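Filed under: proteins

Residues; backbone shape codes:
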Amino acid sequence: MGIVDSATSGVEALELFASNADQYALVLLDMSLEGMQGPEVCRRMRLADCSTPILGMTSFSLNRYRVPLAAAGAQGLVGKGDETQLEQAVSRVLSGCFLPGFETPMAAYARLKCDTQAESTLTNMQETIMNLCANEYLTDVEIAERLGISIATVRKHMQNIVKRLNCRTQRQAIITWLKHGNER
């Protein structure tokens, strides 16, 4: 078994998954992707597909991502530093099992589909902008450069984000996003 595709950003990972999900035996998902964190990428993948197993991996503390990743529909989480543990987890998930605290792809899919909070209030682009702003502390100018869009477009997205999150200011939207947006 070899690597079929790889991506460095959450948006790129979602695009690859959308066009190739039926070809993947397993998705190894890094928790630190550009623009969108692993749990949100996992949640979107799971809502789009009920059978492909997703195994999260990170070089950070597993405790940081375990609960949000399980809620997002993954089948496990392992550290990148322990090759033996990674191999065992991959083998276990490929055999149809899941790691403790996680669930099967179908059970996760059903739970997320039934969860009324699973539906995103922001568009993909708005979530990307919020993640760049809230998690990577980028300015409007830096976000525009990173995404290849105008500063005016970034600002218009931020105005819409503030409205969609029922906030009065951009600061309030960022705080709301940090408290609730990344927990889904």
Q: What stands out?
A: The first strand starts at residue 27 and ends at 30.
